[in-house]
TrEMBL record:
It comes from Anabas testudineus. Its main location: secreted. Keywords: Disulfide bond, Glycoprotein, Lipid-binding, Pyrrolidone carboxylic acid, Secreted, Signal, Transport. Residues 1-19 form the signal peptide. This is Apolipoprotein D.
Length: 189
């Protein structure tokens, strides 16, 4: 039990250092987009706001999704680092249960568990609200949330509505950070 406490303290320290969003207890189970269409979701999405994520360090964060012949989705994430270089990563997303198409699993590395990608809400043309949560040892969970848009800006009205939806799902919207989407011409695909 002492080792478990040490591990827990260590993970919380790491989380605090990276501003990760760790919480006691299991993941919440928010409702997802009804009648979600993976095909309509394809294309480029720009990150407007997010819960802090240690793996995102730059600005101009964007994700491009492409439907593959086998029904999976190619995921291409990129951001612009402070040194002016573009950082990118490729992954694959798949719907695990056809009866719940808005719940996807994303993999970026072989041998590493898939990450959940839940589309809570989208109109496909302007905004998307995404949530991800993983339980750790049955003691706490790590969650992520992203407000995405088809353009590098989104109206405050829509952002407010998406904040309300996250708050209703139990997400602390005060922890959301705004993503810098200025000076991004170099990342345009």
């Amino acid at each position: 039990m002492a080792a478990l406490k040490v591990l827990f303290v260590f993970l919380l320290t790491v989380a605090a250092a990276h501003s990760q969003s760790f919480h006691l207890g299991s993941c919440p189970k928010p409702s997802t987009q009804k009648d979600f269409s993976v095909a309509k979701y394809m294309g480029t999405w720009y990150e407007i706001e997010k819960l802090p994520a240690a793996f995102e360090r730059g600005k101009c964060v964007q994700a491009t999704y492409t439907l593959l012949e086998n029904g999976t989705v190619n995921v291409h994430n990129q951001d612009l680092l402070s040194n002016g270089k573009i950082s990118s990563i490729e992954g694959v997303a798949k719907v695990k249960d056809p009866s719940q198409p808005a719940i996807l699993a994303v993999s970026f590395f072989k041998g590493v568990s898939d990450a959940p990608y839940w589309v809570l809400s989208t109109d496909y043309q302007s905004y998307s609200l995404v949530y991800s949560c993983s339980d750790v040892l049955g003691i706490f969970h790590i969650d992520f949330a992203w407000i995405l848009a088809r353009t590098r800006v989104l109206t405050e009205d829509i952002i407010g509505q998406l904040h309300d939806q996250l708050a209703a799902a139990g997400v602390d919207v005060n922890r959301l950070t705004v993503t810098n989407q200025t000076g991004c011409d170099v990342t345009t695909q």
